[in-house]
Design goal:
Elements: E1 4-13, E2 16-25, E3 28-33, E4 43-46, E5 51-54, E6 56-58, H1 76-85, E7 88-95, H2 103-113, E8 120-125, H3 134-144, E9 149-153, H4 164-176, E10 180-184, H5 188-200, H6 208-212, H7 215-232, E11 236-238, H8 244-255, E12 260-264, H9 266-270, H10 280-283, H11 295-307, E13 312-313, H12 322-325, H13 345-354, H14 361-376, E14 392-402, E15 421-431, E16 434-435
Helix pairs in contact: 3-4, 4-7, 7-8
The chain binds N-(aminocarbonyl)-beta-alanine and zinc ion (2 copies).
């Protein structure tokens, strides 16, 4: 592996941009400083006018996710290539065993699938039932498999969801052994009641998807998750927060000192619920859970990022093709839930966050990388420091693009950000010191 010198970049070190060089040796950041000497065998890249930031960490992706409509459209190979193109160098996906299957066996299987990834992949592990083995399997994952986070679903009770009693049991074990519970917060009972009624009344189009999952569905679940985590003395990470009411509960818990972290996603910051009010082929790509919300929710989410109530931006990357989405053409409950965004996360955040003065560059780096590394315990990632993995993005803040399914690298014919203009894109991305892209 050749040594690489990144020359004259504006490097994001200790929360500020410093104009200097960065030397990569053996996949690690060897050194930063002025005029670092190298011999003629090193490769030198001129980074003049470019910013060098830590590689992005997307804490929430579903690659090759099985669903009744088939697998999500990106597998580990295509999804990781798209991620890298967009400046993301680490992904956190999920291990979701089938009920009756051992958690550890499911983890091993998922790790095999992820060997096709071009970037680092870690996992949240989901207990989908409580059996006589669950406690020991969780402890084994923490102590022997390097797993820190356990994802629990309040929604999807018929397949992967846990009831409150079992959530509490999971939280107690995870908390006691130094892990963190990540939670999909939606009250399943309300959703199912609404869906059954809508379909019985022939209200079958995508616009009934958000109506079946109003803000209260998320807010009540978040309130409950916080209560359970407090009782169990377990740190809590709430995934894909979408409502201002949920933020109120999170902020209240944080202000009391409870370890509660929150993630949101670009779709909840940028897209409006009126997008469901279109013909099926246009609306179906926005069928995601939780659904898109209103302007007041988006404004509250941006403010919560700026205020530090939200720590991370993930994508919940889970794309399905138009053909797959059409499985629900006569019944919105059969539309596979999910959309892609792993490739667009960094540039959307930069364009609509940093360049529109909603967040600082420091916050951009924190929420796209540093905080994820801290919360999930990736000691070698998330910051530009000597000895850390050389996961780096050489960011061109002038470069522009118009997002489109025709040109993106995600393996899907749909893109929920179709037509969005972005400014700020990676010019080169390094994963563990290897140069992966040149756009
Ligand atoms: O619509 C979504 N988010 N699909 C992926 C699974 C989940 O709920 O996170
Ligand atoms: Zn979810
Ligand atoms: Zn998800």
């Amino acid at each position: 592996m050749k040594n690489i010198l990144l020359k004259n970049g504006q490097i994001y070190i200790n929360d500020q941009l410093v104009e200097c060089d960065l030397l990569i040796v053996g996949g690690k950041i060897e050194k930063t400083g002025m005029n670092i000497p190298v011999d003629e065998t090193a490769k030198t890249i001129d980074c003049n006018g470019l910013q060098i930031i830590p590689g992005g960490i997307d804490p929430h992706v579903h690659l090759h996710l099985p669903s009744p409509a088939g697998f999500s459209a990106d597998d580990f190979e295509s999804g990781s290539k798209a991620a890298i193109t967009g400046g993301t160098t680490s992904l956190i996906d999920f291990v979701t065993p089938k009920r009756g299957q051992s958690i550890v066996e499911a983890l091993q299987h998922r790790r095999k699938e992820a060997t096709h990834s071009f970037c680092d992949v870690k996992f949240h592990v989901s207990p989908v039932e409580w059996t006589k083995n669950t406690e020991q399997e969780i402890i084994h994952c923490i102590q022997n498999e390097g797993i820190k986070s356990f994802k629990v679903y309040m929604a999807y009770q018929s397949t992967v969801g846990l009831n409150d009693k079992d959530i509490l049991k999971v939280m107690k074990v995870v908390g006691k052994h130094g892990g963190i519970v990540a939670m999909h917060c939606e009250i399943d009972e309300i959703i199912e009641k609404n869906r059954t009624k809508f379909i019985a009344d022939w209200n079958t189009t995508p616009k009934y998807h958000p109506l079946s999952r109003p803000n209260k569905v998320e807010a009540d679940a978040v309130e409950k998750a916080i209560e359970l985590a407090d009782k169990a003395e377990c740190p809590l990470y709430i995934v894909h927060v979408s409502t201002h009411e949920a933020l109120d509960h999170i902020q209240k818990a944080q202000s009391k000192g409870q370890p509660v972290y929150a993630e949101t996603c670009p779709q909840y910051l940028l897209l409006d619920e009126n997008l469901y009010d279109q013909a099926f082929d246009k609306a179906c790509k926005f069928v995601i859970s939780p659904p898109l919300r209103k302007k007041e929710d988006r404004e509250a989410l941006w403010q919560a990022i700026a205020d530090g109530v939200i720590q991370t931006i993930g994508t919940d990357h889970c794309p399905f093709t138009l053909e797959q989405k059409r499985k629900g053409i006569n019944d919105f409950t059969k539309i596979p839930n999910g959309a892609g965004g792993v490739e667009q996360r960094m540039s959307l955040l930069y364009s609509y966050g940093v360049l529109q003065n909603r967040i600082s560059l420091q916050k951009f780096v924190e929420v796209t990388s540093t905080n994820q590394a801290k919360i999930f315990g990736f000691k070698n990632k998330g910051e530009i420091k000597e000895g850390r993995d050389a996961d780096l993005v050489i960011w061109d803040s002038d470069s522009k693009n118009i997002i489109s399914a025709e040109t993106h690298h995600q393996n899907c014919d749909l893109n929920i950000y179709e037509g969005f203009k972005v400014q700020g894109l990676p010019k080169y991305t390094f994963v563990n010191g290897t140069q992966m892209t040149r756009i």
